[in-house]
Amino acid sequence: MTLQEMNEAGYKSTQSEIKRFNTLLAKQYKKALDEIRTDIRKVYDKVIGDRSPSELAAILKEQPSWLYVQANKFDRLQALQKKVQTQFIKASIAAGNMTVEASKMAITNNFYRQQFAVMFANASPVSLSFTVLNPAVVEVSVLGTPTVWNKLGKQVADKIAGKYGTLGAYQPKYGTLSSILKKNRIADLQKIQTSITQGLIQGKSFTQTSKDVKKVLDSTASQALRVVRTESMRNMNSGAYANHNQAKAQGLDLKRMDLEVLDDRTRGQSQSTDGQISDENDQFHFPGGVLVDIIGNSGIAAYDIHERGVAIEIIEDQPPTQRRARSPVTGKNEIISFKDYSTWMSDNGFAQNKTGRWTIK
Length: 361
Known about the structure:
Layout: H1 3-18, H2 20-48, H3 53-62, H4 66-72, H5 76-121, H6 135-142, H7 146-152, H8 154-164, H9 177-201, H10 206-249, E1 254-259, H11 268-273, E2 284-286, E3 290-292, H12 301-304, E4 310-315, H13 340-347, E5 350-352, E6 358-360
């Protein structure tokens, strides 16, 4: 197995682990939808009472907003909107926590897989030691909050940067994850509550109003999945970047190559950078003179959202397909299956937690 093959296998294995969060996210919003629909149903039943469909139709024909007027009596609508807010925020926060965990898994698991790949393929005189990823790198890359820097202090940050590169490179350039999640949460909640209010004002049936709410929540779930995909790809590349820097800090001569997915969905800038080798500053040159340390973190939304490109390693400026393989487990040149990675991690004191992220035992 070549270095390039192991690099790619590392990304694919981590991506496979992250996919489980797609189902978990969908379940959170499905649960919220069921609860919200139940509460909407209760309000409709109280307002309509024992009126027949024909009686209700006659009332709405004369006064289309009758449902809204009645729902406002005894603060029924206000109480409903409070319940909806509670249910949606609960689901949204749970989904956000899953996004954070998926992002942490992305940077952490890919860091160790890429470290395994480089140690395996290293046939140079440089002897690499196993490195534990510093938690500060994970926190900066995943959350990117100012409190991270405040807690570290300049001296500690500089020390970490000496091994992993400047922490500023890991900072999400298009906004912190928490700010993105909060912004989406506020906007989506408003859409749901507006759908309910407008449904009552326009005299829509429970079925019609619940369908409108479902459309919003379906869109919310799809957007949440897009955030997970975008953030996980960026953080997988962050993990590879962290490994690249720690290996260089140990004296290994490395460069990186941008490897893009080339199909009918590949955007122009990705096509133009495919196969590009990092410059003397370890940066990639994207269209418009944009210098990129970590693929997926250029700061240009059109470049970062849905980015599928990855950075793979090149040792001593030689194409990755020409590398020999030396096992970091045995120290001998040999061809082994990628599944031996688990044994290697276990031997170095790591195990996967309940979500699948590699952590120290």
